[in-house]
Known about the structure:
This protein is an all-beta fold. It has a single domain, classed as monomeric porin ompg (Porin, Beta Barrel). The protein has strands at 2-7, 13-24, 28-40, 46-50, 54-64, 69-78, 94-105, 109-120, 129-138, 140-141, 149-161, 169-179, 186-195, 205-212.
Amino acid sequence: xxxxxILAGHPQAIQNDFQYEHRIxxxxxxxxxxxxxxxxxxxxxxxxxxxxxxxxYKHTVFDSLRRxxxxxxxxxxxxxxxxENEGLGGGVTSFEGFGLYGQALPSDGFLHxxxxxxxxxxxxxxxxxxxxxxxxxxxxxxxGGSGRAWSPMLEVLGAKELARGHDAEWDLAPQMQVTLxxxxxxxxxxxxRVPVNQRNERGNRVIVYLLWDWFDGGLFSNW
Length: 223
Protein backbone atom coordinates (compact mmCIF):
# COMPACT_ATOMS: atom_id res chain seq x y z
CA UNK A 1 0.00 0.00 0.00
CA UNK A 2 1.20 3.50 -0.84
CA UNK A 3 -0.18 6.36 1.26
CA UNK A 4 0.51 10.01 0.50
CA UNK A 5 -0.32 12.75 3.02
CA ILE A 6 -0.02 16.43 2.05
CA LEU A 7 -0.08 19.14 4.71
CA ALA A 8 -1.53 22.34 3.30
CA GLY A 9 -0.59 25.84 4.44
CA HIS A 10 2.81 26.87 5.76
CA PRO A 11 5.10 25.16 6.47
CA GLN A 12 4.18 22.43 4.02
CA ALA A 13 4.95 18.72 4.28
CA ILE A 14 4.51 15.64 2.12
CA GLN A 15 4.76 12.14 3.54
CA ASN A 16 4.82 8.97 1.43
CA ASP A 17 4.42 5.66 3.26
CA PHE A 18 5.24 2.37 1.51
CA GLN A 19 3.59 -0.39 3.55
CA TYR A 20 3.98 -4.13 2.99
CA GLU A 21 1.70 -6.63 4.74
CA HIS A 22 2.02 -10.41 4.79
CA ARG A 23 -0.11 -13.03 6.52
CA ILE A 24 1.38 -15.61 8.90
CA UNK A 25 -0.89 -18.63 9.20
CA UNK A 26 -4.64 -18.11 9.54
CA UNK A 27 -4.62 -15.33 12.12
CA UNK A 28 -1.29 -13.52 12.08
CA UNK A 29 0.07 -10.71 9.92
CA UNK A 30 3.25 -8.65 9.94
CA UNK A 31 3.65 -5.19 8.45
CA UNK A 32 6.65 -3.10 7.42
CA UNK A 33 6.23 0.61 6.77
CA UNK A 34 8.93 2.73 5.12
CA UNK A 35 8.16 6.48 4.97
CA UNK A 36 9.83 9.01 2.70
CA UNK A 37 9.17 12.56 3.87
CA UNK A 38 9.51 16.06 2.48
CA UNK A 39 9.42 18.74 5.17
CA UNK A 40 9.50 22.52 4.83
CA UNK A 41 10.90 24.69 7.62
CA UNK A 42 9.93 28.24 8.56
CA UNK A 43 12.28 29.65 5.91
CA UNK A 44 10.53 27.59 3.20
CA UNK A 45 13.61 25.39 2.80
CA UNK A 46 12.75 21.77 1.98
CA UNK A 47 14.36 18.71 3.56
CA UNK A 48 13.75 15.25 2.17
CA UNK A 49 14.71 11.77 3.18
CA UNK A 50 13.80 8.60 5.02
CA UNK A 51 11.35 8.93 7.91
CA UNK A 52 10.96 6.65 10.94
CA UNK A 53 10.64 3.02 9.77
CA UNK A 54 8.23 0.85 11.73
CA UNK A 55 7.56 -2.89 11.96
CA UNK A 56 4.29 -4.29 13.34
CA TYR A 57 2.55 -7.59 14.06
CA LYS A 58 -1.16 -8.12 14.64
CA HIS A 59 -3.12 -11.22 15.50
CA THR A 60 -6.81 -12.02 15.25
CA VAL A 61 -8.05 -13.10 18.68
CA PHE A 62 -11.75 -13.46 17.79
CA ASP A 63 -13.88 -13.52 14.67
CA SER A 64 -17.46 -14.45 13.86
CA LEU A 65 -18.87 -14.61 10.35
CA ARG A 66 -22.38 -14.96 11.75
CA ARG A 67 -22.06 -11.79 13.84
CA UNK A 68 -19.94 -9.99 11.24
CA UNK A 69 -17.31 -9.04 13.81
CA UNK A 70 -13.55 -9.36 14.22
CA UNK A 71 -11.18 -8.43 17.06
CA UNK A 72 -7.40 -8.14 16.71
CA UNK A 73 -4.46 -6.99 18.83
CA UNK A 74 -0.91 -6.13 17.97
CA UNK A 75 2.30 -4.28 18.61
CA UNK A 76 4.63 -2.04 16.64
CA UNK A 77 8.24 -0.89 16.92
CA UNK A 78 9.12 2.54 15.55
CA UNK A 79 12.79 3.14 14.79
CA UNK A 80 14.37 6.65 14.70
CA UNK A 81 15.69 6.37 11.14
CA UNK A 82 14.56 9.88 10.12
CA UNK A 83 16.66 12.96 10.77
CA GLU A 84 15.03 14.73 13.72
CA ASN A 85 16.89 18.02 13.15
CA GLU A 86 15.33 18.25 9.67
CA GLY A 87 11.83 17.37 10.85
CA LEU A 88 11.89 13.95 9.18
CA GLY A 89 11.69 11.79 12.32
CA GLY A 90 10.87 11.65 16.01
CA GLY A 91 14.42 10.97 17.24
CA VAL A 92 13.55 8.12 19.60
CA THR A 93 12.67 4.42 19.44
CA SER A 94 9.06 3.79 20.48
CA PHE A 95 6.74 0.85 21.10
CA GLU A 96 3.08 0.95 20.21
CA GLY A 97 0.39 -1.44 21.41
CA PHE A 98 -3.09 -1.44 19.87
CA GLY A 99 -6.40 -3.22 19.54
CA LEU A 100 -8.75 -3.22 16.55
CA TYR A 101 -12.42 -4.10 16.23
CA GLY A 102 -14.48 -4.38 13.06
CA GLN A 103 -18.23 -4.79 12.85
CA ALA A 104 -20.43 -5.29 9.81
CA LEU A 105 -23.62 -3.20 9.98
CA PRO A 106 -26.95 -3.68 8.20
CA SER A 107 -27.26 -2.72 4.51
CA ASP A 108 -23.51 -3.17 3.85
CA GLY A 109 -22.48 -0.66 6.49
CA PHE A 110 -19.34 -1.07 8.58
CA LEU A 111 -17.72 0.20 11.78
CA HIS A 112 -13.99 0.12 12.54
CA UNK A 113 -12.50 1.02 15.93
CA UNK A 114 -8.83 1.22 16.93
CA UNK A 115 -7.27 2.28 20.22
CA UNK A 116 -3.79 2.05 21.61
CA UNK A 117 -0.79 3.63 23.30
CA UNK A 118 2.75 4.64 22.38
CA UNK A 119 5.68 4.48 24.78
CA UNK A 120 9.08 5.99 23.84
CA UNK A 121 12.29 4.33 24.98
CA UNK A 122 13.40 7.69 26.44
CA UNK A 123 10.61 9.77 28.00
CA UNK A 124 12.96 12.75 28.18
CA UNK A 125 12.86 12.94 24.38
CA UNK A 126 9.17 12.19 23.80
CA UNK A 127 5.98 11.80 25.83
CA UNK A 128 3.82 8.73 26.22
CA UNK A 129 0.66 8.94 24.15
CA UNK A 130 -2.73 7.30 23.80
CA UNK A 131 -4.82 7.37 20.63
CA UNK A 132 -8.23 6.29 19.35
CA UNK A 133 -9.81 6.13 15.89
CA UNK A 134 -13.30 5.26 14.69
CA UNK A 135 -14.57 4.98 11.12
CA UNK A 136 -18.14 4.38 9.99
CA UNK A 137 -19.31 4.01 6.42
CA UNK A 138 -21.31 2.08 3.86
CA UNK A 139 -20.45 0.21 0.65
CA UNK A 140 -22.34 0.30 -2.63
CA UNK A 141 -21.23 -2.36 -5.14
CA UNK A 142 -22.13 -2.53 -8.82
CA UNK A 143 -23.25 -5.64 -10.72
CA GLY A 144 -24.94 -7.21 -7.72
CA GLY A 145 -21.88 -6.94 -5.53
CA SER A 146 -19.31 -8.31 -7.99
CA GLY A 147 -18.41 -5.00 -9.66
CA ARG A 148 -16.78 -1.78 -8.59
CA ALA A 149 -17.45 -0.91 -4.93
CA TRP A 150 -17.82 2.61 -3.53
CA SER A 151 -17.35 3.17 0.22
CA PRO A 152 -17.86 6.67 1.62
CA MET A 153 -16.91 6.93 5.28
CA LEU A 154 -16.22 9.33 8.11
CA GLU A 155 -13.29 8.79 10.46
CA VAL A 156 -12.93 10.40 13.89
CA LEU A 157 -9.36 10.50 15.22
CA GLY A 158 -8.08 11.46 18.64
CA ALA A 159 -4.71 11.48 20.40
CA LYS A 160 -3.36 12.77 23.70
CA GLU A 161 0.15 13.04 25.04
CA LEU A 162 0.30 11.94 28.69
CA ALA A 163 2.03 15.04 29.98
CA ARG A 164 0.81 18.08 31.87
CA GLY A 165 -0.41 20.88 29.65
CA HIS A 166 -1.19 18.71 26.62
CA ASP A 167 -4.82 18.60 25.52
CA ALA A 168 -6.33 15.90 23.35
CA GLU A 169 -6.21 16.49 19.60
CA TRP A 170 -9.37 15.74 17.62
CA ASP A 171 -9.63 15.36 13.84
CA LEU A 172 -12.35 14.48 11.33
CA ALA A 173 -11.52 12.70 8.08
CA PRO A 174 -14.29 12.33 5.47
CA GLN A 175 -13.10 10.04 2.68
CA MET A 176 -14.11 7.82 -0.22
CA GLN A 177 -12.70 4.41 -1.12
CA VAL A 178 -13.33 2.84 -4.54
CA THR A 179 -12.17 -0.46 -6.01
CA LEU A 180 -10.42 -0.03 -9.34
CA UNK A 181 -10.50 -3.64 -10.51
CA UNK A 182 -13.24 -6.17 -11.14
CA UNK A 183 -11.54 -8.47 -8.64
CA UNK A 184 -11.76 -5.65 -6.05
CA UNK A 185 -8.11 -6.26 -5.16
CA UNK A 186 -6.88 -2.77 -6.09
CA UNK A 187 -8.42 0.14 -4.15
CA UNK A 188 -8.01 3.90 -4.16
CA UNK A 189 -8.96 6.08 -1.21
CA UNK A 190 -8.96 9.88 -1.01
CA UNK A 191 -9.94 12.09 1.90
CA UNK A 192 -9.30 15.24 3.89
CA ARG A 193 -8.12 15.23 7.51
CA VAL A 194 -9.43 18.34 9.25
CA PRO A 195 -8.42 19.32 12.82
CA VAL A 196 -11.36 20.04 15.10
CA ASN A 197 -9.34 21.85 17.78
CA GLN A 198 -5.91 23.53 17.99
CA ARG A 199 -6.41 24.75 14.42
CA ASN A 200 -3.82 27.50 14.85
CA GLU A 201 -1.17 24.79 15.35
CA ARG A 202 -2.37 22.12 12.92
CA GLY A 203 -3.49 22.40 9.31
CA ASN A 204 -5.63 20.34 6.96
CA ARG A 205 -4.12 17.26 5.33
CA VAL A 206 -5.05 15.70 2.00
CA ILE A 207 -4.64 11.92 2.27
CA VAL A 208 -4.61 9.47 -0.65
CA TYR A 209 -3.73 5.79 -0.58
CA LEU A 210 -3.50 3.01 -3.17
CA LEU A 211 -3.99 -0.54 -1.84
CA TRP A 212 -3.01 -3.59 -3.92
CA ASP A 213 -3.76 -7.11 -2.65
CA TRP A 214 -1.16 -8.72 -4.91
CA PHE A 215 -2.11 -12.29 -3.88
CA ASP A 216 -5.41 -11.97 -5.80
CA GLY A 217 -3.90 -10.75 -9.06
CA GLY A 218 -1.61 -8.34 -10.88
CA LEU A 219 -1.83 -4.60 -10.40
CA PHE A 220 -3.67 -4.09 -13.71
CA SER A 221 -5.61 -7.37 -13.77
CA ASN A 222 -9.32 -7.19 -14.69
CA TRP A 223 -9.74 -3.40 -14.64
